[in-house]
Amino acid sequence: MQINENIGEVRVSGTIRLAQRARDLAAQGKDVIDLTEGQPHYNTPRHITEAAYQGALAGQTGYTAVAGKPHLRNLIANHINHQNGTDYRIENIVVGCGGKQLIFNALMVSLERGDEVIIPAPYWVSYPEIVKIAHGLPVVVQCLPASGFKITANQLNAAITGKTRWLILNSPGNPTGAVYTKSELEEIATVLRQHPQVSVLSDDIYEVIVYEGAEFTSLTKVAPDLIPRILTISGLSKSYAMTGWRLGYCAGEANFIKQMVKLQGQSTTNASTLSQVGAIAAFEGSQEFLSEWLNDYTGARDLVCKKLSQSDALEVHQPEGAFYLFVGCKKLFGYGDIVNDQDVCNYLLEKALVAVIPGSEFGCQGYFRLCFAKPVEMLDKATDNLIQSVNDLCKRQ
Ligand SMILES: Cc1ncc(COP(=O)(O)O)c(C=O)c1O
Question: Could you tell me the distance, in angstroms and rounded to a whole number, from the CA of residue 175 to the centre of ligand 1?
Answer without folding.
Answer: 11
